[in-house]
């Protein structure tokens, strides 16, 4: 039985894990870099230990320091969260050698799925549909492979993700430069310049299947999530269920994902990511051998605490879920709230959160790693929180998310709140008509006006100017409001001018 867990992470995911641990009566140990000393996860943990300077390479990526804290604190398990060391095979193996339980999959499964070319081969052997492609060893091989596949093609880093090392190539004359840039970016981001090339699926949706399994080979899926709203291959908004997926399609994708997970001896939580083509065909993209950022929407719709299940499985418990008994209800949407400025190319906006008042009310969840007065550092991902909602159906979920966004108050930094408002109000999103290129195609409509600079916020004139700008991007008030649209009073409009 696991009694004390070290969380090898920071921010909202560390807070999220702590909450499930405390509900289970398990102690949580936090680690922190110098700039995270006052962070929320440090305040909520039962014990907290410093592990180094702000750069992740000197703190959150230091396996030796994290294991040293685990030994000193008496932690018998480590949860890696997502990002940092969560998919690092060496970290999982180091935990195994140290006699510390790694709350995640076995290192062998991480190795099998960590290399995209190897994972593609493994999945193809297991009968999982994959996009045609291969791993060229040179530019000449890449050119020959692209010619056989036909343009457009996609170049991807073989040992990474998150959109880094990816290039879409439409013409043969552009391949050389794209290949070199993809290699260079992959080497910088992942320490390995290997890239692979595959046929590009145009206007796809990005749909993923959540899987969960125990150490005895019992494996289930918990349905799908649509993660197609992306910016530069980074997810921004996710929802469940997928607006265009039929129950029959979801069942097929779920069966394929379970088959693929069994093929690599997988246990714990994991996610199979697929590209869903316009004709309904789907293709294996990759497997994330960890908890996903967007896991709350699956928890909303299925009622399953994925973090709690991961801890139980790591402790040797048998999976209590059976596929035929798993059901879901309603619809859920998640918006990632970032400290960034959409009107300036989404530049990060670190700084002090002078005001932070997240929304509340029925069926609203805000997973955050910050509090009012805390500092959003410049050294890490600028995610402030994950705002998610649940409702009986998709239309009601959109209305609830719009209401929640209207209540969200942040000052001191810039955020992407207005971007999310514009997105949720867009008729194509409301109709479920979107793919992975949606943001790129509608950038002007989605980015819109943003809040005034902090130094202007003390003047009433600035407040009124921004209120007027926000009013311009909302439906005219002369007619009846559109169904589900939040009604904003003049007081709310003026308050929002200070965001």
What's this, in brief?
Keywords: ATP-binding, Biotin, Ligase, Nucleotide-binding. GO terms for molecular function: ATP binding; ligase activity; metal ion binding. This protein is of the alpha+beta class.
Query: Which architecture of the largest domain would the CATH scheme give at its second level?
Result: 2-Layer Sandwich
Shape, please? globular
First-last Cα distance? 46 Å
CATH homology group of the largest domain: ATP-grasp fold, B domain
Main sheet record:
8 strands, antiparallel
**Tell me, what is the CATH class of the largest domain?**
Alpha Beta
Question: Would you spell out the secondary-structure blueprint of this structure?
Answer:
Blueprint: E1 4-7, H1 11-23, E2 27-33, H2 40-44, E3 47-52, H3 63-73, E4 77-79, H4 89-97, E5 101-102, H5 107-114, H6 116-125, E6 133-134, H7 139-149, E7 153-157, E8 167-169, H8 175-190, E9 195-199, E10 205-213, E11 219-231, E12 234-240, H9 247-263, E13 268-276, E14 282-288, H10 295-302, H11 306-314, E15 331-338, E16 340-341, E17 347-348, E18 351-352, E19 355-357, E20 364-368, E21 375-376, E22 383-391, H12 394-407, E23 409-411, H13 417-425, H14 427-430, H15 438-441, H16 443-447, H17 460-472, H18 490-496
Parallel strand pairs: 1-2, 1-4, 2-3, 4-5
Antiparallel strand pairs: 6-9, 7-8, 7-9, 10-11, 10-13, 11-12, 12-15, 13-14, 15-22, 16-17, 18-21, 19-23, 20-22
Helix pairs in contact: 4-5, 12-13, 17-18
Keywords: ATP-binding, Biotin, Ligase, Nucleotide-binding
Organism: Sorangium cellulosum
Domain Biotin carboxylation: 1-444
């Amino acid at each position: 039985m696991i009694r004390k867990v070290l969380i090898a992470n920071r921010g909202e995911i560390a807070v999220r894990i702590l909450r499930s641990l405390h509900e289970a009566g398990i102690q949580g140990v936090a680690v922190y870099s110098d700039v995270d000393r006052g962070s929320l996860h440090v305040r909520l943990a039962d014990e907290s230990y410093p592990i180094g300077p702000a750069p992740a390479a000197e703190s959150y990526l230091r396996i030796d320091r994290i294991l040293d804290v685990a030994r000193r604190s008496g932690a018998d398990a480590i949860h890696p969260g997502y990002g940092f060391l969560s998919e690092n095979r060496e970290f999982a193996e180091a935990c195994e050698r140290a006699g510390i339980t790694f709350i995640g999959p076995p290192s062998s499964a991480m190795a099998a799925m960590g290399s995209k070319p190897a994972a593609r081969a493994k999945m193809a052997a297991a009968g999982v549909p994959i996009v045609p492609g291969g791993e060229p060893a040179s530019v000449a091989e890449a050119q020959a492979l692209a010619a056989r596949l036909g343009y457009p093609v996609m170049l991807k880093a073989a040992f990474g993700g998150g959109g880094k090392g990816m290039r879409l190539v439409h013409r043969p004359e552009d391949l050389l430069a794209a290949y070199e840039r993809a290699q260079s970016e992959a080497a910088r981001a992942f320490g390995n310049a290997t890239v692979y090339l595959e046929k590009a699926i145009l206007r796809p949706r990005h749909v993923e299947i959540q899987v969960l399994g125990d150490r005895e080979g019992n494996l289930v899926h918990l349905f799908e999530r649509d993660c197609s709203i992306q910016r530069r291959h980074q997810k921004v908004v996710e929802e469940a269920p997928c607006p265009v997926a039929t129950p029959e399609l979801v069942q097929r994708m779920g069966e394929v994902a379970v088959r693929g997970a069994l093929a690599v001896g997988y246990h714990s939580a994991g996610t199979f990511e697929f590209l869903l083509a316009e004709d309904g065909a789907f293709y294996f993209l990759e497997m994330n051998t960890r908890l996903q950022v967007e896991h709350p929407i699956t928890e909303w719709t299925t009622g399953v605490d994925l973090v709690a299940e991961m801890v139980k499985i790591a402790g040797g418990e048998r999976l209590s879920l059976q596929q035929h008994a798993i059901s879901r209800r309603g619809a859920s949407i998640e918006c990632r709230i970032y400290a960034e400025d959409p009107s300036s190319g989404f530049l990060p906006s670190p700084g002090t959160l002078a005001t932070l008042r997240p929304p509340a009310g029925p069926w609203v969840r805000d997973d955050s790693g910050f509090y009012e007065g805390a500092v959003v550092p410049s050294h890490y991902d600028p995610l402030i929180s994950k705002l998610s909602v649940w409702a009986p159906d998709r239309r009601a979920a959109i209305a609830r998310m719009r209401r929640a966004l209207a209540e969200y108050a942040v000052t001191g930094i810039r955020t992407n709140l207005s971007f999310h408002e514009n997105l949720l109000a867009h008729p194509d999103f409301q109709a479920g008509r979107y793919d992975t290129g949606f943001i790129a195609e509608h950038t002007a409509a989605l980015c819109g006006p943003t809040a005034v600079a902090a130094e202007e916020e003390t003047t009433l004139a600035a407040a009124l100017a921004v209120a007027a700008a926000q009013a311009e991007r909302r439906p005219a008030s002369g007619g009846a409001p559109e169904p589900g649209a939040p009604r904003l009073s003049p007081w709310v409009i003026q308050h929002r001018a200070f965001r």
